[in-house]
From TrEMBL:
<comment type="similarity">
    <text>Belongs to the short-chain dehydrogenases/reductases (SDR) family.</text>
</comment>
<keyword id="KW-0560">Oxidoreductase</keyword>
<dbReference type="InterPro" id="IPR036291">
    <property type="entry name" value="NAD(P)-bd_dom_sf"/>
</dbReference>
<dbReference type="GO" id="GO:0016491">
    <property type="term" value="F:oxidoreductase activity"/>
</dbReference>
<protein>
    <submittedName>
        <fullName>Dehydrogenase/reductase SDR family member 13</fullName>
    </submittedName>
</protein>
Amino acid sequence: RLQSCAPSRVVIVASRAHWAGRLHPDTLGRPPPGPLSTFQDYCDSKLANVLHARELATRLEGTQVTCYAVHPGFVNTELFRHTPLWLKPLFLPLVWLFFRDAAEGAQTCLHCATQEGLERFSGRYFADCRLQEPW
């Protein structure tokens, strides 16, 4: 469908947390061991998102469907909902002080979805409405 109504764009929400991601195909679908396994799962999934954007762009080359991986910033969402109760008092004050609200977090996604002239950057990674090099 995206090709039939081209030009079209795919925006994949990744995160700077991809830097701590590890992909081990033999253990996909099983949680990593350790006390920070939820965070590791998050990082692994964001690395997969960055790589997915690159692969999808490669597969869609020449179709007028472009693809972008986006770091929206640290956004005050339900990101820490699965954090152990004892860790929440450490994280929640930081969230309220330093994280973006949802409207601010949407800016880079909207930029990649609507900004003209980004087609040549298909498969690339964006943060703060700018092209960035992923880890």
